[in-house]
Amino acid sequence: MSPLTGAPRDRLRIAIQKSGRLSEPARALLASCGLSWRESRDRLFCYGETLPIDLLLVRDDDIPGLIADGVCDLGIVGRNVLLEQAGERAANGRAEAFREWRPLGFGGCRLMLAVPDGWDWRGPAQLAGRRIATSYPALLSNWLQEQGIAAQVVTLSGSVEIAPRLGQADLICDLVSSGATLAANQLRPVQTLLESEAVLAGPARDFEAERAELAEMLLRRLDGALRVRHSKLLLFQAPRRLLPQLLSLLPDAESPTVMRLDQGEDDLALQALCHGAVTWQRLEELKRAGARGLMVLPVEGMLA
Ligand code: PRP
Ligand code: ZN
């Protein structure tokens, strides 16, 4: 029997993008939650080894549907894909079947309107009667409706950025990450419709018994991993009188621990979990402010 069929499942199944922008960071995030897999030869299904949590490697656009159909329990996908398909389902009068469970803090991009370089952009009102090419017709239509603008939505499955030059549309609505694609096509981003990033997607309702416990454990680990993702543990020593000044340099530190040293009445040891970037420049500032023996340690996980 194929691992993809068979009625009741006590294993959890997570769909991620097979290849593309979100694929590697999604795997790395799940691995940081203690998951590991035995790769199958076709690399579409990875059997979970440390935990009964398997991976399905698919096209990102298929992920919401796989969750809706119960083929997968969870997925890592762009918010843009999830909301577009949710909008499409709603427009067709279908029930809500999936939702965003957690933002994941990577794969950031924006769904934006972009106009040809020569345009003099004066705001959304200018869009009336225009043709807008996009792969996100539901999100664009909803936005146009909210703005009270009647424009024509031209749905394309890809290569949206060349539509204005081909005369298929006057402007486009597409994802912008670095902005390189727009620039290469003489287009200028003018309006943001949606801030997107990778999210953990799951069913609209909760899981039943067997898988609920497993999903809860995964979420706990995920929250712990996300919380310390960019965090570092900072250790140093300093004279007591310099403490206020030093703490003012650590606005991103979570309640720093201050300890008295065995020797030296006036000296303290500090330990702080910093959520911002701990750069060389910050270390140098702390040193100038009187800190000694600065040490930065990576944080691998946290269980609140
Ligand atoms: C998006 C979008 C652009 C490109 C923009 O496609 O459709 O082609 O990324 O990125 P840039 O601003 O860094 O140049 P994506 O890679 O997400 O692929 P897909 O939409 O075909 O899944
Ligand atoms: Zn895609």
Automatic annotation (TrEMBL):
<dbReference type="Pfam" id="PF01634">
    <property type="entry name" value="HisG"/>
</dbReference>
<dbReference type="InterPro" id="IPR001348">
    <property type="entry name" value="ATP_PRibTrfase_HisG"/>
</dbReference>
<dbReference type="InterPro" id="IPR013115">
    <property type="entry name" value="HisG_C"/>
</dbReference>
<dbReference type="InterPro" id="IPR013820">
    <property type="entry name" value="ATP_PRibTrfase_cat"/>
</dbReference>
<keyword id="KW-0368">Histidine biosynthesis</keyword>
<keyword id="KW-0328">Glycosyltransferase</keyword>
<keyword id="KW-0460">Magnesium</keyword>
<feature type="domain" description="Histidine biosynthesis HisG C-terminal">
    <location>
        <begin position="230"/>
        <end position="300"/>
    </location>
</feature>
<dbReference type="GO" id="GO:0003879">
    <property type="term" value="F:ATP phosphoribosyltransferase activity"/>
</dbReference>
<comment type="similarity">
    <text>Belongs to the ATP phosphoribosyltransferase family. Long subfamily.</text>
</comment>
<keyword id="KW-0479">Metal-binding</keyword>
<dbReference type="GO" id="GO:0005524">
    <property type="term" value="F:ATP binding"/>
</dbReference>
<dbReference type="InterPro" id="IPR018198">
    <property type="entry name" value="ATP_PRibTrfase_CS"/>
</dbReference>
<dbReference type="GO" id="GO:0000287">
    <property type="term" value="F:magnesium ion binding"/>
</dbReference>
<feature type="domain" description="ATP phosphoribosyltransferase catalytic">
    <location>
        <begin position="59"/>
        <end position="222"/>
    </location>
</feature>
<dbReference type="GO" id="GO:0005737">
    <property type="term" value="C:cytoplasm"/>
</dbReference>
<dbReference type="InterPro" id="IPR015867">
    <property type="entry name" value="N-reg_PII/ATP_PRibTrfase_C"/>
</dbReference>
<keyword id="KW-0808">Transferase</keyword>
<keyword id="KW-0028">Amino-acid biosynthesis</keyword>
<dbReference type="Pfam" id="PF08029">
    <property type="entry name" value="HisG_C"/>
</dbReference>
<dbReference type="InterPro" id="IPR020621">
    <property type="entry name" value="ATP-PRT_HisG_long"/>
</dbReference>
<dbReference type="GO" id="GO:0000105">
    <property type="term" value="P:L-histidine biosynthetic process"/>
</dbReference>
<dbReference type="InterPro" id="IPR011322">
    <property type="entry name" value="N-reg_PII-like_a/b"/>
</dbReference>
<comment type="function">
    <text>Catalyzes the condensation of ATP and 5-phosphoribose 1-diphosphate to form N'-(5'-phosphoribosyl)-ATP (PR-ATP). Has a crucial role in the pathway because the rate of histidine biosynthesis seems to be controlled primarily by regulation of HisG enzymatic activity.</text>
</comment>
<keyword id="KW-0963">Cytoplasm</keyword>
<keyword id="KW-0547">Nucleotide-binding</keyword>
<keyword id="KW-0067">ATP-binding</keyword>
<comment type="pathway">
    <text>Amino-acid biosynthesis; L-histidine biosynthesis; L-histidine from 5-phospho-alpha-D-ribose 1-diphosphate: step 1/9.</text>
</comment>
<protein>
    <recommendedName>
        <fullName>ATP phosphoribosyltransferase</fullName>
        <ecNumber>2.4.2.17</ecNumber>
    </recommendedName>
</protein>
